[in-house]
Amino acid sequence: MNTMLRRSITLIAVLAIVAVFIVIQTQTGEDNLPTWPTSVPAGKIDFKKNVRPLLIINCLECHNSEDAPANGNLNLETRELAMNTGNNPPILVPGKPDESRLITVLTLEGIHQQAMPPTPDKIWGVRMEILRRWIEEGADWPASVRLVHPREIKEW
Fold this sequence. Notes:
mainly alpha
């Protein structure tokens, strides 16, 4: 086989692999992956779809069972832990976002010692509004849903 034919076959094979990858990516859908929301969802906030990714990405790196002692003793892996751990529990006051310590620490200026998450990863805009509305709606968090450290995520 001459060099030109071999290169052509290699190019076709590479293009075929890229095309298959694009098709698979499209079929699996990016809906399965967390993204920064661009708008507050209409209707009731869904914990698994709307809140869980925000807490995992923004909070669980520090507020998990292993690292909680060094981070205000707050563990956000389950609703029960979120309600009963930390130096000043509860972190959530269902129905009352302005009384929820979670909202308080998230809205503190970046230079404040208790501001979470640390600058430059502040939660604001649509993400903050989702969390506020979730708490306002009662902070529904199914008992069967346990949050894990971001490095342990196997599926969203």
